[in-house]
Amino acid sequence: MPAIAVADALRAEGAEVVFVGGERAERELVPKACYELRTLRVQPLPRRRPLRALRAGLVDAAAAGAALRLLRELRPDAVMGAGGYVAGPVGLAAVLTRVPLVLSEADSHLGLTNRLLAPFARRVCLSFPLAGRRGRRYSVTGRPIPAVVSDRRAARERFGIGPDETCVLVFGGSQGARTINHAAVEAFAGARFRVLHAAGERDLPELESPGPHYDLRGYIPGFGEALLASDLVVARAGGSIFEIAAYGRPAVLIPYPYATADHQSENASFMERAGAAIVILDQELTAPRLAQEVGRLLADRSRLHAMARASAELARPDAAREVAGELLVAASG
Hints:
The protein is 42% helix and 14% strand. The chain is built from 13 helices and twelve strands. α3 (50-74) packs across α4 (87-96) and α7 packs across α11 (287-299).
């Protein structure tokens, strides 16, 4: 999604954009956003399983050759690596063919692919300031997000939420979050406020809406409208915290405990230190605890409004345009 946000900003400047990806969510999201997608067969390198790592290395070596052929065909003026293992072969191909390379890091740590490619990049665009990552090569742009929508009345009408109703938005990322999903359904079963819950398609068959006040869905396209329609967010603490901030929403964050380098805990602390969120550890999450924390916030409107202001102050709504600008400068050079 950050890459698509940058692509939209590039297209607005008249640039032609082609995506190179694997077999994951990009297979659906990129064509839906009206971009051409070329695919490579790439595998992550398991760090604790040598035999699997060897097999994956052979697959990735073939992907690097395919990426070289692809760049010779497309002849791009610049390449952006958006992190993740699928960006490795294309970034390497850009270095070998001397195509300017710009990297974008969406998390609060530099992933393995970006760490390996950073010494060869014209610019590394960071979502957060990172220790040891300073100087002309690095730029803190924030995490690119889709364009922010602003018609709250229309957003609420879309979800059937009245202008005076309170709405809590629950989500856990593209795959959902099992602990949050089950805790929320139980915690808000008898709530007097509206609940809009994006549970992810994986967990949806296990869940049942507890009443007409509870809008339970697998996936919400045009997710910005869900954020705009809400008054409080309950969520994981991935890169979506920048979308939460862009809409100035206070949040209850439950970091995913197995995220790489525990970056979700750092993301959640970033929001908490600013006064924009409260944090519940995943192992401490229960339905009664979630109901209690949300109830306290909704009952204290002055605190809720203060958290909303703090959230909005963290927003970097121009991140996609900044990263696109770095790419255009690299391309023109």
